[in-house]
């Protein structure tokens, strides 16, 4: 089974080619999903990691079968490891 890549902004699994964002030339961006990157630019260039966590928590609790209250602590550890948020 191949390793699953994750969006380096929101952490979404990039399992399908259609999940990927696009680079400045319209080609597939291997690091970011289509919700975060389009045409080589971030869709929300000024979003903070904390605001991104808020968005992703809502999705995870509604759609990913993560029990309420467990997503935020998981993301607080995972998100800082992603390329966009590394310091």
Tell me the radius of gyration. 13 Å
Q: pLDDT under 50 segments (min length 5)?
A: none
Overall shape: globular
Distance between the termini: 31 Å
- Oligomerization status of the protein chains: single chain
Sketch the topology as an H/E string, one letter per element.
EEEEHH
Number of strands: 4
Question: What does the model show?
Answer:
The chain has about 90 residues and is an alpha+beta fold. It has one domain (about 15-80). The chain is built from two helices and four strands, in the order E-E-E-E-H-H. It has helices at about 50-65, 70-80, and strands spanning about 20, 30-35, 35-40, 40. The longest helix has 15 residues, at about 50-65. It is globular, with a radius of gyration of 13 Å. The mean pLDDT is about 90.
In short:
This protein is α+β, with helices and mostly antiparallel strands and 87 residues long.
Key traits:
alpha+beta, two-stranded antiparallel sheet, globular, 87 residues
Blueprint of the fold:
Layout lengths: L19 E3 L5 E6 L3 E2 L2 E2 L6 H15 L7 H8 L9
Antiparallel strand pairs: 1-2, 3-4
Helix pairs in contact: 1-2
């Amino acid at each position: 089974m191949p390793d699953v890549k994750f969006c380096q902004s929101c952490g979404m699994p990039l399992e399908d080619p259609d999940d990927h964002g696009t680079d400045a030339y319209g080609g597939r961006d291997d690091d970011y999903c289509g919700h975060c990157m389009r045409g080589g630019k971030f869709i929300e260039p000024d979003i903070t990691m904390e605001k991104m966590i808020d968005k992703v928590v809502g999705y995870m609790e509604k759609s990913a079968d993560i029990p309420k209250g467990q997503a935020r602590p998981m993301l607080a550890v995972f998100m800082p490891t992603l390329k966009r948020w590394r310091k």
